[in-house]
Design goal:
By secondary structure, the protein is of the alpha/beta class. The chain contains three helices and five strands. Helix 1 runs parallel beside helix 2. 27% of the residues are buried.
Length: 131
């Protein structure tokens, strides 16, 4: 199985687009995630949705809004609240993971390979040979 991150933007419109993907693909949702990371002493959140492969495909897309949201557990940003509501409406439990910030990697592609490794290791997405 091939998993690949598909990056949306970091703004409000992008979070609404991610939530619309949740809403229109309820039958395909595999898992929802909030990844938190730290850069220069500040915490940031990424929102992601992993979808089951379409029909007979062996491709699992993971849509993500990467690190554009300041993260504070005590006072969640409105974009996080919107994502939490959309996940609840889709009957999805959000999985929280603290990860390295993408700036720790020389290329975004390496960051996404790192995330795929973490998700596979923790059995949040299927192994490469699955299906």
């Amino acid at each position: 199985m091939i998993q690949q991150f598909i990056e949306l933007g970091q703004g409000y419109g992008d979070v609404f687009e991610l939530c619309e993907l949740l809403n229109t693909n309820k039958a395909r949702i595999h898992r929802t995630f909030i990844f938190t990371s730290k850069k220069e002493g500040k915490m940031y959140a990424s929102l992601a949705v992993a979808l089951q492969p379409a029909q007979e495909s062996k491709f699992m897309p993971v849509y993500i809004c990467r690190e554009g949201i300041p993260y504070n557990e005590e006072k969640l940003a409105q974009r996080l609240e919107i994502f939490k509501q959309a996940s609840a409406q889709a009957n999805q439990q959000i999985h929280y993971l603290e990860v390295k910030h993408s700036s720790s990697f020389t290329e975004t592609t390496l960051f996404y390979q790192y995330l795929i490794g973490i998700l596979r290791l923790n059995h949040y997405i299927p192994a490469m040979h699955a299906l």
